[in-house]
Amino acid sequence: QVQLVESGGGLVQPGGSLTLSCAASGNIWNTNTMGWYRQAPGKQRDMVAVIFNEGGSSYADSAKGRFTISRDIAKKTLYLQMNNLTPEDSAVYYCTGNLQSPRGWATYWGQGTQVTVSS
């Protein structure tokens, strides 16, 4: 069974940094686009950053210059380095990926990790 498990969330002060990780497990044959989304209370889930198989990436305007998405294909792990955090970054952060298993290609989501930016 394919799973995505996020970690690294927590409480951080404004201006601080956090690195989120997303570990993929299960019988994964290939990975394609992967990304991070976030959802604050009462708001829709929005894209934060995505990374493409060929290595390119794309960021939400709010993340540009502060967040960096990366992946370790060998470790099947996706990362999100977040710097200069503000209270507006507080949300549940979700990892997602287009993965191939023996059952074919599908989009998977993690359970989310809470990021709270507060003094």
Overview of this protein structure:
The protein is mainly β and 119 residues long. It is built from no helices and 11 strands. Strands 2, 4, 5, 6, 9, 10 and 11 form a 7-stranded mixed sheet that branches. A hairpin with a 5-residue loop joins strand 5 and strand 6. The relative contact order is 0.33. The mean pLDDT is 96.
Topology:
Elements: E1 3-7, E2 10-12, E3 18-25, E4 30-39, E5 46-51, E6 57-59, E7 67-72, E8 77-82, E9 91-101, E10 104-109, E11 113-117
Parallel strand pairs: 2-11
Antiparallel strand pairs: 1-3, 3-8, 4-5, 4-9, 5-6, 7-8, 9-10, 9-11
Note the main attributes of this structure.
0% helix, 11 strands, four-stranded antiparallel sheet, 119 residues, seven-stranded mixed sheet, globular, mainly beta
Quick overview of this protein structure:
The protein has 119 residues and is an all-beta fold. It has no helices and eleven strands.
Report the span from N to C terminus. 40 Å
For the residues shown, what is the average pLDDT? 96
Share of β-strand residues: over 45%
Shape: globular
- What share of the residues lie within helices? under 10%
- Rounded to the nearest angstrom, the radius of gyration is 14 Å
**Helix-and-strand structural type:** mainly beta
Number of strands: 11
Sketch the topology as an H/E string, one letter per element.
EEEEEEEEEEE
Low-confidence stretches are none
